[in-house]
């Protein structure tokens, strides 16, 4: 632990302020609470919103996991995990089941999260209406008046133009029947996991200075039309080339020499567990979101 | 303390960090002293303090050393440091008429009351490389200093004591030539100021929010936006009423005795006041000038002037040009935020790009791939 800085880097008043904003966000699901986002020793746009939440709520007994693109081992995930560890001394893990606090960019783990875990998402764009309205002043009014007509028209026109809704990974959802929310970093594949989950989801947008939340057991419904229903990514029955598992979110890897395309689980921790189980080792794998 | 081993990323980061030190030191020259940067890279230090919004020349110099001279990166280091210290006090508004001026000019009036005072400026130098600086020795530097400080001009200046410069703007206002669109706001009870480092900006932004955002803004971004209003994307033709550089005292309320103030030090600032004619309005009979104001840490004239021009441009009720729109300006001038975001494109986007590919293929299936 780096003794030069305060526990969890940020000063105590600031952590308290972030926690107050979190309480408000939890009380009003899907509502974007403005907060005085601080600079951290990582760049704005690299997960400072998520990191401020993590640093504000992490306790000495927490076990922290950090994911980037589903991977615990990418440089940014390592960097964030190291920073959290260095400034708090808390235990870290790559095992989704062991973690009490998970900070993530772009993925919700394949193993189902429980009510004893908190998932913190790093958010680049908190505003679901930004597709249709550039002005912050105007989008705040639209949320206040529950005026989402522009967004519905946008989705409708998308279907007319392209035959389907083209949004891939910033798919707008209606939270608790009141606020339209951008679950922004995650692909469509992970959107259904937010619906009536047991886990608390916290969203932090550092550069845009907004915090929002989905409390457990909250309705989260993707915006869709009766004749054009929301669909998640389809991998055409492909399975992971490492663990043989289907039904997970896969990413393509293109082999420069052979020209072949392989598919691998983007959730590396889950994939490693599956590989171990295939080798006959005993591993505990969490439940499925869709069981 | 258990720290779960990770596979490759951590090692890669460690090696990259070591390489940074290697690249900084590989030339084999004597490591540059922080004090040298503070003294001799004066303007870089000032820019970093302004954009980092922390007045500390030593830490700014350290940040510059660590960042190998990258001012944006150095400002980022300062900003991050700010997050580790609590905010204990807000200083009182600085009275710039009490400035210990080192430079003061007016482009509006030749015979400005108090006179023009050039101070240290590069404005009138010929931009020729001074090759003798390649071989500047400590001895020569000392010799120059000794001669200069013992010279007659210096003594003359010292004898004058603190120079008194009345504010040109006050004179314009007294003559009834200056409209003050913020008069109503100025008369408001002094409440707690909006602090953008503690609350996110709301629109319409209060004047204190605007001033803070501009003062922390990246010099180059402010310059580009201010330039755009003057050369066609906007209708402001600013004249520099007054530009001052100097030291101002910083006062805070006494922590114990209410009503009393304590001077905690002084900071070097650059202040710019531009005047531009109001657009003719039907509801006003008189034509008047209006004011744009800029103030930033350190000696950074381009930034202060650009800030003042933008402050004036953003008064527009119906913004036509980007730089007249306060949301556009205030959301995009912060160098730490914009550089961080642009730099994040270097991070992997495997998951979302996968989602994007699936969507594109799906659309192609719907509509057939077109050549």
Automatic annotation (TrEMBL), chain A:
Cited InterPro entries: PhnJ
Recorded source organism is Kyrpidia spormannii
Q: Does this entry carry the keyword Lyase?
A: yes
Molecular function as annotated in GO = 4 iron, 4 sulfur cluster binding; lyase activity
UniProt xrefs under Pfam families: PhnJ
Tell me the superkingdom of the source: Bacteria
GO BP field: organic phosphonate catabolic process
Indicate whether Lyase appears among the record's keywords: yes
The alphabetized UniProt keywords are: Lyase
Protein name per the record? Carbon-phosphorus lyase complex subunit PhnJ
From TrEMBL, chain B:
User: Any idea which UniProt keywords this protein has?
Assistant: Lyase
Instruction: List the protein's name.
Output: Carbon-phosphorus lyase
The source organism is Kyrpidia spormannii
Q: Which GO terms describe its biological process?
A: organic phosphonate metabolic process
Tell me the classification of the organism that encodes this protein: Bacteria, Bacillati, Bacillota, Bacilli, Bacillales
A single Gene Ontology molecular function, please?
A: lyase activity
Q: Name one Pfam family in it.
A: PhnI
User: Is the keyword Lyase assigned to this protein?
Assistant: yes
């Amino acid at each position: 632990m780096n003794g030069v800085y305060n526990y969890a880097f940020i000063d105590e008043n600031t952590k308290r302020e972030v926690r107050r904003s979190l309480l408000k966000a939890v009380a009003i699901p899907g509502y974007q609470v403005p907060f005085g986002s601080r600079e951290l020793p990582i760049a704005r746009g690299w997960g400072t919103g998520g990191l401020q939440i993590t640093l504000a709520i992490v306790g000495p007994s927490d076990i922290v996991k950090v994911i980037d693109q589903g991977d615990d081992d990418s440089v940014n995930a390592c960097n964030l995990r190291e920073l959290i560890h260095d400034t708090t001394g808390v235990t870290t893990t790559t095992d989704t089941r062991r973690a009490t606090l998970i900070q993530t960019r772009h993925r919700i783990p394949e193993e189902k999260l429980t009510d004893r875990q908190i998932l913190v998402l790093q958010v680049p764009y908190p505003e679901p209406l930004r597709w249709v309205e550039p002005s912050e002043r105007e989008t705040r009014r639209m949320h206040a008046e529950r005026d989402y007509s522009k967004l519905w028209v946008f989705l409708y026109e998308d279907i007319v133009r392209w035959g389907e809704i083209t949004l891939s990974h910033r798919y707008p959802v209606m939270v608790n029947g009141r606020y339209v929310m951008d679950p922004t970093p995650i692909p469509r594949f992970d959107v259904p996991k937010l619906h009536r989950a047991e886990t608390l989801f916290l969203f932090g947008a550092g550069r845009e200075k907004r915090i929002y939340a989905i409390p457990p057991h909250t309705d989260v419904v993707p915006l869709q039309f009766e004749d054009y229903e929301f669909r998640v990514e389809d991998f055409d029955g492909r399975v992971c080339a490492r663990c043989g598992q289907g039904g997970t979110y896969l990413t393509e890897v293109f082999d420069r020499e052979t020209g072949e395309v392989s598919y691998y689980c983007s959730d590396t921790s889950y994939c490693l567990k599956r590989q171990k189980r295939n080798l006959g080792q005993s591993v505990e794998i969490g439940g499925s979101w869709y069981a | 303390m258990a720290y779960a081993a990770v596979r490759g990323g951590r090692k890669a980061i460690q090696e990259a960090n070591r390489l940074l030190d290697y690249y900084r030191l590989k030339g084999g020259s004597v490591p540059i002293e922080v004090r040298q940067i503070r003294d001799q890279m004066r303007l870089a230090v000032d820019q970093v303090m302004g954009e980092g919004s922390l007045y500390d020349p030593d830490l700014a110099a350290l940040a510059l050393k660590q960042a190998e001279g990258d001012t944006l990166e150095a400002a980022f280091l300062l900003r991050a440091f700010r997050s580790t210290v609590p905010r204990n006090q807000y200083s009182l508004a600085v009275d710039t008429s009490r400035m210990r001026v080192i430079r003061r000019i007016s482009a509006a009036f030749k015979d400005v009351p108090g006179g023009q005072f050039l101070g240290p400026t590069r404005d009138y130098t010929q931009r020729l490389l001074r090759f003798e600086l390649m071989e500047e020795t400590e001895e020569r530097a000392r010799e120059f200093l000794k001669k200069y400080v013992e010279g007659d001009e210096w003594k003359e200046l010292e004898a004058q004591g603190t120079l008194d410069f009345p504010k040109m703007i006050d004179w314009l206002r007294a003559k009834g030539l200056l409209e003050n669109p913020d008069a109503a706001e100025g008369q408001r009870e002094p409440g707690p100021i909006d602090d953008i480092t503690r609350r996110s900006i709301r629109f319409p932004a209060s004047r204190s929010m605007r001033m803070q955002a501009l003062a922390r803004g990246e010099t180059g971004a402010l310059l580009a936006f201010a330039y755009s209003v003057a050369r066609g994307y906007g209708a402001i033709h600013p004249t520099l009423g007054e530009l001052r550089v100097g030291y101002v005292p910083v006062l805070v309320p006494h922590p114990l005795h209410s009503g009393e103030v304590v001077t905690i030090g002084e900071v070097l600032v650059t202040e710019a006041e531009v005047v531009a004619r109001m657009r003719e309005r039907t509801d006003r009979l008189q034509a008047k000038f209006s004011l744009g104001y800029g103030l930033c840490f350190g000696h950074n004239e381009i930034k202060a002037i650009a800030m003042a021009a933008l402050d004036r441009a953003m008064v527009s009720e119906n913004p036509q040009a980007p730089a007249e729109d306060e949301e556009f300006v205030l959301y995009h001038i912060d160098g730490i935020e914009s550089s961080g975001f642009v730099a994040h494109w270097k991070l992997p986007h495997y998951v979302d790009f996968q989602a994007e590919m699936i969507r594109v293929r799906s659309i192609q299936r719907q509509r057939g791939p077109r050549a």
